[in-house]
Request: fold
Amino acid sequence: MSMVVTNIGKERELTIGHVYDPWRPVAKMYDDSGNEYSPKVFRLANHGGYTASAFLLSGIPVKASVRFEGVSPESKMIPLFYLFAGDYRVEFRNLPLSR
Reply:
């Protein structure tokens, strides 16, 4: 899952990924068969791994991605993908699934 993040506020550090919080999953994706997937790798700017952090300058777009493995080849759509970025939950709905 690839996206672009643009900070429109003050410059700040952003972390996505497996930050320890047992009460909150960091990201989930659901396919059109109702299957649930957890992410394996996060990328933010030129940083990546189990977590990814980057300093976001105001107004500068930064590439980000979340990799999921084992997605059914029969899946054509993602009804829901969400991820926590800092204290924010970001949701995407009804995305076409491309390979």
In short: Residues 2-17+25-96 form one domain. The longest strand covers residues 77-85. The two ends are 10 Å apart (CA to CA). The chain has one domain: 2-17+25-96.
